[in-house]
Each structure stands twice: as structure tokens, then as C-alpha cells.
Amino acid sequence: MFMSNAQLLSGVDLAAIINADTASRAARVTDVSGLPPTLATVLVGDDPASVTYVSMKQRRCQQFGLGAVHVGLPASIGTAEIVERVEELSNNTGVDGILVQHPMGEYVDERAVFDAITATKDVDGVSSTSFAAMALGQPGFQSCTPGGVVRLLEHHGVVVAGADVVVVGRSAILGKPLAALLSARDATVTLCHSRTRNLAAHLSRADIVIAAVGRPRFINGTHLKDGAVVVDAGYHPGGVGDVDFASAARVAAAITPVPGGVGPMTIAMLLSQTVDAAETRVQQAGPATG
């Protein structure tokens, strides 16, 4: 029988709070400007998982009063053509935020595509400009999943300052920006990856473990010290994360569920930051005249 005293770090309730605020602010933007905060999604090819993710984001836009524009591109398209379409969206005054769904294909230079998003519309926080802002503690949009993880920890009262944090996974859209955000909050961060020697030793001393490795049940309870906080940023078919939940929950003081932990926070951050961009658009336009 499974038994655990670990606190569940649910993202569902917090995401609902953020989404309610997003809807309220979106309504104000629409009333003032006559144009709702609008998110443009760009999808290359027809990967089933990517199609599902983009459709979910479009539905959430409708649900909370945001506009949605979708650009579907063939899988055969090259980097230059994708960059051109993204630049068109960056110059489109009717678009407040841009999300380019990835992966985009084996031969696409994803970094070039991400960096074609103007910083004021990079609501997914994927461009080099946004990454630099996160690393330097400057104003800008956060990568949505890392930003969501930080908000989740803060909401549940997990003390990050001074904590020994191990992030497993060094992707440019998750592990690296998360390490930057946590460092800015005075955590001591170790960023582990496939070349890390003796990963188990790093995990065994961590106060907070964040799994973003992309491998199902990669981390289990034997890797953790008693009382660790565990955040699982992975998702795999069947509702499985990067952490073996049952064994980890027996050891951890707190743990995120999968689903229902980090996932809801990612979309909530995306929509919230789209409204942030729209509010800036309205402020720059100034008061209506006539």
C-alpha cells in the first residue's frame, strides 16, 4: 500500500488564481483599446503532441478573454521561411505575444527562429534577449515553465534562498533559465546533465530537486535525502513524469504531482505574460482621443 506524508505542491489552484487575474486584466485591455490581448501560435508540421499543445493554448485564450491567431506551416519549410513569418508577427500591431511551438524539425535552426521574436512579444521567454534578462535580473519575460516553477515554490512557502538546489536537465528553455531564476533568488544551484559524474551524489545532498531531464521515472526515492522538495517538470504518456512519484513521495517533504503540478503553471504564465505585453501596448498608445 502506498503511504506518504509528503505535501502535494499542486499547481491547479495557483493556476486558477493567475488565470482569474489574467481574465480580469484582459477584459480591461479590451475595454480600453478595443483589441483583446492576442497570442499568435506558430506550428511547424503536424506532430500530434504539438498539435494538441497548441490547440489547448488556443482554447485557454478563448476561455480567458484573449484573442488567438494561428500560423500553421508545412514540415518541409526551412529556417529562413519560418523566420520571415515570425518577423511578420513581430511587426503585426494586432499581435501582443508570439509562441513558436517546438520541436520544429530536424533541419530547422530553432535558435534563429526564437531570436526572430521581438523581445516585447516573447511571452514564452525563449529568445536570447529574454534569457539574458533572466540571467542578469533585468526586466523581461520569463520562460514559462521555469517561471511557473518559481511561482509554485513561492506559493507553497518553499524557501529558496540559501537552499541547495539540483536541476537535472540543461535545456535552453527549461534547465538553464530555471537555474538563472533560482540563482537570482539566492539559491545555490547545481545544473546537472547527461555528462554529470555521480549524479546520485548530487541528488542525495539537495534540499530541492527539479527534474527536467525528459526521461520517465528517471529519479526515484533512493536518490533523495529525507525531507527534500521535489519538482517534476516532465510529462510522458500515461501521466508519468521524470520522477517515480510513489518512491519519491515516501522520502520527500513535498512533491509536485504529474499531472496537476508544473503543467497548469506553464500555460497560466504564458497567458499572463501575453496580457502583460498587451498592457504595455495600451500604455504606450496613451489615452484615447476623439
From TrEMBL:
Residues 143-280 form the Tetrahydrofolate dehydrogenase/cyclohydrolase NAD(P)-binding domain. InterPro entries: Aminoacid_DH-like_N_sf, NAD(P)-bd_dom_sf, THF_DH/CycHdrlase, THF_DH/CycHdrlase_cat_dom, THF_DH/CycHdrlase_CS, THF_DH/CycHdrlase_NAD-bd_dom. Residues 9-124 form the Tetrahydrofolate dehydrogenase/cyclohydrolase catalytic domain. It comes from the Bacteria. Its EC number is 1.5.1.5, 3.5.4.9. GO terms for biological process: L-histidine biosynthetic process; methionine biosynthetic process; purine nucleotide biosynthetic process; tetrahydrofolate interconversion. Pfam families: THF_DHG_CYH, THF_DHG_CYH_C. NADP(+) binds at residues 169-171. Pathway: One-carbon metabolism; tetrahydrofolate interconversion. Keywords: Amino-acid biosynthesis, Histidine biosynthesis, Hydrolase, Methionine biosynthesis, Multifunctional enzyme, NADP, One-carbon metabolism, Oxidoreductase, Purine biosynthesis. Transmembrane segments: none annotated. One of its GO terms (cellular component) is cytosol. It catalyses: (6R)-5,10-methylene-5,6,7,8-tetrahydrofolate + NADP(+) = (6R)-5,10-methenyltetrahydrofolate + NADPH; (6R)-5,10-methenyltetrahydrofolate + H2O = (6R)-10-formyltetrahydrofolate + H(+). GO terms for molecular function: methenyltetrahydrofolate cyclohydrolase activity; methylenetetrahydrofolate dehydrogenase (NADP+) activity. Belongs to the tetrahydrofolate dehydrogenase/cyclohydrolase family. Homodimer. Catalyzes the oxidation of 5,10-methylenetetrahydrofolate to 5,10-methenyltetrahydrofolate and then the hydrolysis of 5,10-methenyltetrahydrofolate to 10-formyltetrahydrofolate. This is Bifunctional protein FolD. The gene is folD.
